[in-house]
């Protein structure tokens, strides 16, 4: 742990992040003043500012849930698969590029790209059979998005372990479904807090009492989004495994890990049943396997949780941004970003499609330089997790 910040009348802020940007610290201080929170606010080493609550934050609420403390990409998380294929089999860049191209051909990538036909899944039926569910809540887009990557920092990677074997890794979430759930219940939370004159440090931190219908329904819908995100990653991983088997028929898949890092769950901490919110943070209970990815040009880690109660048994969910998307596009150059990706199969930098900037500007927002040093992040949480496997990228498909 880097430091504990204490002030009279608010909860302590425990941080594993040494240099926190001022906006993120201000958000943490707002959380420390929140009437529904207990014990302390925990900031992971990848902490940076989010909406209402910092990304890389963990909090414990009593009989309440805060939609913004889960975020819009409910269930966003990681899946990783270990293989028995020696990394030398993928030494040839042309061979890797062929695998990369085949994955891109089969999995829709990027915002607005989805399957041409609606996907079937028992989870849709089970959810719609739940009492009180609005049948209009699941829209056609959700059925077409299932098994797609999305955009932003989501990725598919072919990696090699330090011991010399190939791994597959995917980062993705609940797509547009989670966003709609968060927006719906955030509005309900703000209305409820206004109705009961509940003083809040920030309107973004409006909460829903678990005893209220809206609080119960949020958990129902959030858990559905978690299942959707879990299934989304599994479907993409199934395709990636099939593609790898096309090119290397003798491959065997040894183990698979599939976890969330944007969610809320009731857990026992300090002798109490509390609603733990992990926004851009991963559960790290004792001996629990976790995944901490780096940027698209740096290492990722498979870790074992140490069950440290000081973080509500949590750890980072990745490297964490060190500059905003806009700042990355304005300050980085394509040549320095290309240099950071030497030896890694990836697509070239594309023109910016957002931020309201010039069409001639390249989107460098996901370049390695836009992220914190993953080695520093891992070192900062040595009391939260133990490294099991270090992985470096061979080929990257970005959202």
How would you describe this structure to a colleague?
The structure is a single chain. With 399 residues, the chain is of the alpha+beta class. The chain has nine helices and 17 strands. The chain has helices spanning 22-32, 93-106, 122-128, 140-145, 175-195, 213-247, 325-331, 334-340, 374-380; strands at residues 3-5, 13-15, 41-48, 55-61, 64-65, 77-86, 155-161, 165-172, 208-209, 253-260, 262-269, 272-279, 281-283, 289-292, 300-305, 314-316, 385-398. Strands 10-6-8-7-17-15-14 form a seven-stranded antiparallel beta sheet. Helix 2 packs across helix 6 and helix 5 (175-195) runs antiparallel to helix 6. The longest helix is centred in the middle third of the chain and has 35 residues, at 213-247. It is globular and about 65 Å long.
Question: What is the structure about, briefly put?
Answer:
29% of the residues lie in helices and 26% in strands.
User: What overall geometry do the principal axes of the alpha carbons give?
Assistant: globular
Secondary-structure element order, N to C: EEHEEEEHHHEEHEHEEEEEEEHHHE
Helix fraction by DSSP (H/I, runs of at least 4): 25-40%
- Strand tally is 17
Q: How would you classify the helix and strand content by structural class?
A: alpha+beta
Name the beta content range. Answer: 25-35%
Number of helices: 9
How can the largest sheet be summarized? 7 strands, antiparallel
For the record, give the distance between the C-alpha atoms at the N and C termini, rounded to a whole number: 33 Å
Strand ordering within the main sheet: 10-6-8-7-17-15-14
Q: Uncertain segments of ≥5 residues (pLDDT<50)? A: none
Radius of gyration: 21 Å
What is the residue-mean pLDDT, rounded to a whole number? 95
């Amino acid at each position: 742990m880097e430091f504990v910040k204490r002030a009279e009348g608010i909860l302590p802020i425990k941080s594993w992040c040494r240099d926190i940007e001022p906006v993120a610290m201000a958000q943490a201080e707002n959380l420390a003043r929140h009437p529904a929170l207990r014990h302390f606010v925990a900031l992971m080493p990848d902490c940076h500012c989010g909406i209402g609550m910092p990304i890389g934050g963990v909090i414990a609420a009593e009989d309440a849930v805060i939609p913004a403390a889960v975020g819009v990409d409910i269930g966003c998380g990681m899946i990783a698969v270990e293989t028995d294929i020696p990394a030398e089999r993928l030494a040839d860049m042309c061979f890797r590029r062929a695998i990369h191209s085949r994955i891109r051909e089969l999995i829709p990538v990027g915002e607005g790209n989805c399957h041409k036909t609606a996907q079937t899944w028992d989870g849709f039926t089970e959810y719609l059979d739940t009492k009180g569910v609005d049948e209009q809540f699941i829209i056609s887009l959700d059925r077409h998005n299932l098994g797609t990557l999305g955009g932003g920092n989501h990725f598919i990677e072919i990696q090699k372990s330090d011991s010399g074997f190939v791994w597959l890794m995917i980062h993705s979430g609940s797509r547009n479904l989670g966003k709609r759930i968060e927006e719906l219940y955030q509005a309900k939370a703000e209305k409820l807090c206004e109705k009961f004159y509940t003083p809040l440090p920030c309107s973004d931190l409006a909460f829903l009492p678990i005893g209220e219908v809206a609080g119960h329904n949020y958990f129902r819908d959030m858990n559905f989004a978690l299942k959707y995100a879990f299934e989304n990653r599994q479907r993409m991983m199934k395709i990636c495994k099939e593609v790898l088997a096309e090119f290397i028929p003798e491959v065997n898949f040894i183990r698979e890990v599939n976890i969330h890092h944007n969610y809320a769950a009731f857990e026992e901490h300090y002798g109490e049943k509390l609603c733990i919110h992990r926004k851009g943070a991963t559960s790290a209970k004792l001996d629990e396997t976790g995944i901490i990815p780096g940027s698209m040009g740096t290492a990722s880690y498979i870790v074992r949780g140490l069950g440290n109660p000081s973080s509500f048994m949590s750890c980072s969910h990745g490297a964490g941004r060190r500059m905003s998307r806009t700042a990355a596009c304005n300050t980085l150059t394509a040549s320095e970003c290309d240099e950071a990706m030497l030896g890694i199969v990836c697509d070239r930098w594309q023109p910016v499609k957002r931020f309201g900037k010039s069409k001639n500007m390249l989107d460098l927002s996901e370049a390695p330089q836009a992220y914190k040093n993953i080695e520093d992040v891992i070192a900062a949480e040595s009391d939260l997790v133990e490294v099991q496997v270090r992985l470096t990228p061979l080929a990257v498909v970005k959202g």
